[in-house]
Amino acid sequence: MGGLKGRDLLSLADLSAEEITALLDLAARMKAGNVTPIATNGYIPVLGLLFYKASTRTRVSFTVAMAQLGGQVIDLAVSSTQVGRGEPITDTARVLDRYVDILAIRTFEQQDIETFAEYAKIPIVNALTDLEHPCQILADLQTVQETFGTLSGLTLTYLGDGNNIAHSLLLGCALVGMNIRIASPSNYQPNDAIVQQAKTIAAGQSEVILTPDPIAAAKGAQVLYTDVWASMGQEDLADSRIPIFQPYQVNEQLMTYADKDAIVLHCLPAHRGEEITDGVMEGAQSKIWDQAENRMHAQKALIASLLGLV
After folding, report:
1. Residues of the chain with CATH 3.40.50.1370
2. Comparing C-alpha atoms, which of 205, 147, 137 is closest to residue 170?
3. DSSP state of 192
4. 2-132+295-306 belongs to which homologous superfamily?
5. Rounded distance, CA 13 to CA 168, Å?
6. Rounded to an integer, what distance in angstroms lies between the CA atom of residue 50 and that of residue 44?
7. Which CATH architecture is the domain 136-291 placed in?
8. Whole-angstrom Cα distance, residue 151 to residue 176?
9. pLDDT in tens, 79-108
């Protein structure tokens, strides 16, 4: 994993298929307790968390992962830092570059995280933007792989809004050779540039399909995946979206169209009774809690690789 040392992760497309495979293997070995890289020689690496948006899983999983690596975390609440008072990103990036060893950022615009990466020499990690959520998808791929023993040739169907999760799933699945189907209402499909990027990556090895038909998308799929119908910052649109997205709910009836051994994933938080029923979420085919746990393992592998601890 030496090739990742010092690099940024702004998009899943920043990684090669081989690098994703190696990260997932390292995450699995860490989860099993077979690899425990710990900071040595008096070096205590410091991870900075700069979050402009609310977070439970990302904040806690990064914090615990860094602690298990022998490092420390500084949680930089935007409201209590100068960036919250309008300090330019270029200035904040160059200062934090002198203080911390790696910085995970959760923000709105992808351009902001790209600016951080341009002005800071330390690794910058995308902990969610409105465009992508690469760390989530690393954990998702780990969950699928530990369930089926492979990724290549499987079909993942995502149902719902063509949001940041859909974008990173498109890229991640294309890179590892999984078929990816996105079922969304016609006016809520993913960013076309990312769709085309995924199709280019997948060419000759897997399928990238967009459809407004949730049943057609679910047929024979090994993974059904959903997310909230209104992302952070869109809460005022939530009620108006319910009738539009209702046909895309992951429920017991939709499950009958998927592969008999299919699993269900959700990146959380979930609105039970909207995008997913309580019965499916708590059912035998749900891997949602394993998926949430794997955020910590996948991110531990990522941090260790970017810092050169492995």
Report:
1. 2-132+295-306, 136-291
2. 137
3. H
4. Aspartate/ornithine carbamoyltransferase (3.40.50.1370)
5. 9
6. 19
7. 3-Layer(aba) Sandwich (3.40)
8. 7
9. 889 988 899 999 999 999 999 999 999 999
Q: How far is CA 217 from the centre of its chain?
A: 21
Q: Is 106 annotated as a binding residue?
A: yes
Phi-psi region of 126 (alpha: psi -120 to 50; beta: other; left: phi over 0): beta
**3-class SS of residue 259:** coil
Residue 135 among known ligand-binding residues: yes
Tell whether residue 152 is among the known ligand binding residues: no
What's this model's pTM, rounded to 2 decimal places? 0.96
- The pLDDT mean for the chain works out to 95
- What are the tens digits of pLDDT across the range 25-70? 999 999 999 987 777 677 899 999 999 999 999 999 999 999 999 9
What positions carry a catalytic annotation?
A: 106, 133, 136, 227, 267, 295
Tell whether residue 241 is among the known ligand binding residues: no
